[in-house]
Design goal:
Oligomer: single chain
Shape: elongated
Largest sheet: 8 strands, mixed
Number of strands: 8
Helix content: 40-55%
Length: 303
Amino acid sequence: MKIGYLGLGKMGENMVMRLLEQGIEVVAWNRSSQPLDEVAAAGAIATTDPVNLVSKLEVPRIVWLMFPAGEITDEFINQLIPLLSPGDLVIDGANSFYEDTIRRAKLLAEKSIRFMDIGVSGGPGGARTGACLMVGGKKADYEEVLPLIKAASAPNAYCYMGPVGAGHFTKMVHNGIEYGMMESIAEGFAVLKKSPFKIDLRAAADIYQHRSVVESRLMGWLKEALDEDENLAETSSLIGATGEGEWTVKTAQKLDVNTPVIADSFRVRTESAKVAEESADGFRNKAVSAMRGKFGQHKVKKS
């Protein structure tokens, strides 16, 4: 299988490396040259622009987009439309809002260009070694690109979720759940830190990772951060939010579903700039930042 791949950020570059190792031929493009040079050294075909990329693919083409959510995805879809042919397939692997995904699918359908959405979980590390993929689109298109999906994912870490938009909707809710889980873990460790028993936070994180009910990848990432710096002194208490938590809360409201845990965890993030670094709540926020840094390579160090 041969695909075009646009967008070599920390997720995209790692996924291309994974695909190349799995025998997928990749024609790649990126605005900045360094990641493009790196994937080319690993066997990808580097191109000078999207026009050049499309020219190196055979009809029906498969083009994977991996850009930050928002206008940049629309920008490149609009660039691709006059370059593609009826029957070609565009895949959006970014964290796009599902309503935008449905709108983009309708736009492409007017040109008889197929569209799929794939929610990708696992962070840059998962993209490199095998991600978790949540797929939306026509079932026939899913079955056609199943070798590609299997190549990008960890064993059995992929699922067809339904029509266009269902993949990104599932990933949106996944990230909302993630917000709540991270906040709960961080709150618990803030309480442990204030304990009258002078509990070793590293020991607590370690025992929680040995067959306890709260054993998890998130707990493991917090343990790594605490092993490096038990007080998270160099970690910022300012927590970033990239959109999916807010989308989950607003979508839940539209669907008349109450989501107090996810809503509160999102509120904590939006108000994190007001929290004193050295307070108990500051440590709680640092714990969330530390987990984000471990799985997503988000910037969490104090500036």
